Structure formats: structure tokens, C-alpha cells
Amino acid sequence: MEGVRLINLTPHEITVYTDRGAVSIPPSGQVARVSVTSIEVARIGGIPINRVEYGEVEGLPEPQPNTYYIVSQLVLQALRSAGVSRQDILAPDTSPSSAVRDSEGRIIGVKALLTL
């Protein structure tokens, strides 16, 4: 990964397990966020049925050469919903095939990152 910068825009350290070992990416101190609003659209048997609406993503830097920004899956989804198509935005892939869990089932890292 020489010559490539990974900037973690989440508040948590991210660990990626590779063929060469674990790579830990510390938080940068800057956090990309999005507001989320749940709107009730129906009720079924007294159970509210909500739709999620995303607000604007804040704290996302402009693209830079050889730089990738790691954001939460929520931020990635909001950008996708807004039609953003930047290839420099990544998120941890916590799907069952990628998530690495400890003995108690907590995610401690991932084997891959997601893109838009």
C-alpha cells in the first residue's frame, strides 16, 4: 500500500485482515456523518412501518490523489442514495464473509472494504 493513503473518517479504529497480516487504521480525528430521519409510512397490526431518509453528508473531504477515505456503511449508503459515484470512498465490509469476530461474536475487523 505504499504511496496510498487511507484516511479513517469514523470515530473507531478499523482493522483489515490481509494476506500479509492485520492493518490497523486509526481514526483521523475528522468524522464523516449523515443525519437520518425515520418517517412513519404505515402501521401493520399496531406496528409502525418507517422509511429512512438521509440528510446531507458532512465532514467528507474533497478527492485527493492516491487517497481513500473510510466512512461508515451508513454514510456510504447515504452517498449511494444521493447518486454520488466517487471511487475514493470506502467502508468496512461487515458481511458474514468478510467480518472477523472474536470468541464472543463481536466484530474485531474485516477482510475487505466496500465502495460506492
Number of strands: 10
Largest sheet: 4 strands, mixed
Judged by helices, strands and strand pairing, the structural class is mainly beta
Q: Specify the overall morphology.
A: globular
What are the low-pLDDT stretches, counting only 5+ consecutive residues below 50?
none
From the alpha carbons, calculate the radius of gyration and give it in angstroms.
16 Å
How much helicity do the residues have? under 10%
Strand content: over 45%
Tally of alpha and pi helices = 1
Query: What is the H/E order?
Result: EEEEEEHEEEE
Question: How far from one another are the termini?
Answer: 20 Å
The overall pLDDT, averaged over residues, is 94
Overall structural domain count: 1
Structure description:
With about 120 residues, this protein is mainly beta. The chain has one domain. Helices cover about 10% and strands about 50% of the residues. The protein has one helix and ten strands; from the N terminus they run E-E-E-E-E-E-H-E-E-E-E. The strands form four sheets. The chain has a four-stranded mixed β-sheet with strand order 1-6-7-10, with helices on one face. A two-stranded antiparallel ribbon has the order 2-3. A two-stranded antiparallel sheet has the order 4-5. A hairpin with a 2-residue loop joins strand 4 and strand 5. It starts with a strand and ends with a strand. The mean pLDDT is about 95.
